[in-house]
Amino acid sequence: MSHQRMLLAALLAMASLGLCSCAGNKLTDHPFTLGYKPVLAEDLSNCTFKPGSWEYEDGVLTRKGGGDIWTNELYGDFILDLEFKVAERTNSGVFFRTADIKNWLHTGIEVQVYDSHGKETPGKHDCGAVYDVQEPSDNAVKPAGQWNRLTIMAKGPIVNIVMNGQQIIDMNLDNWPEAHKNFDGTKNKFNIAYKDMAREGVFGFQDHGKPVWYRNIKVKRLK
Question: Is residue 116 part of a domain?
Fold first, then answer.
């Protein structure tokens, strides 16, 4: 057996035992290949939102004000890939596996979209964080006005997040077994333990009162 084949066999064995996070690391360089589909219809007919609150033109989803926008379709295990751009002091977010859009705060997971470029040590409310739960390992967001690429993978309890080619989140939801308590002992605001969050739900894009833009929003379902 060649050295390359021996190495591949070893990596596959490690992955089967849960000792290798290769699936997460692949997010840093995965191409748009077969299996990716647009999330949004051109007329937003596959979404729930207040009329006039969002506009989708020339492939760019733009906040106009008046509330969040949610997909009607449910997603369980997936890779969501998109670009976003913020204005100065923008606060927004990308939700996934949201079970109840009327109670989105406690039934969905939010990846923070925020104008936090330049902050030396990012926290649980900065861009790329799983909001109020897990801070990103690095501050990878670009200055306001520039496009950022965000990739989110959710597979069972595993959540991996890459921003601008850098993996910033690698977490296992099962490590959050208590409501209002994070893995590191800090408190969070959620009434449901992250371990018990729904493993299927809708995507959402948050209106938090400031300009934000999203484009190239594509998803690949994972079996």
Answer: yes
The alpha helices in 17-153, defined as continuous H runs, are 22-25, 104-107
What pTM was estimated for this model as a whole? 0.86
Taking only the tens place, the pLDDT of each residue in 152-169 is 999 999 999 999 999 999
Using CA atoms, how far apart are residues 197 and 209, in angstroms rounded to an integer?
27
Structure tokens at 42: 């051109």
With cut-offs at 50, 70 and 90, classify the pLDDT of residue 191: very high
**Residues 173-189 as b or e (16 or more Cβ within 10 Å = b):** beebeeeeebbeeeebe
Measured distance CA(71)–CA(124) in Å, rounded: 25
Instruction: Give CA–CA dist 84/90, Å, rounded.
Output: 11
Domain that holds residue 55: 22-221
pLDDT digits (tens, 9 = 90+) for 100-137: 999 999 999 999 999 999 999 999 999 999 999 999 99
Indicate whether 1 belongs to any domain.
no
Residue 191 sits in a domain of what CATH number? Answer: 2.60.120.560
Cα gap 61→53, rounded to integer Å = 11
Q: How many CA atoms lie within 13 A of 127 on its CB side?
A: 31
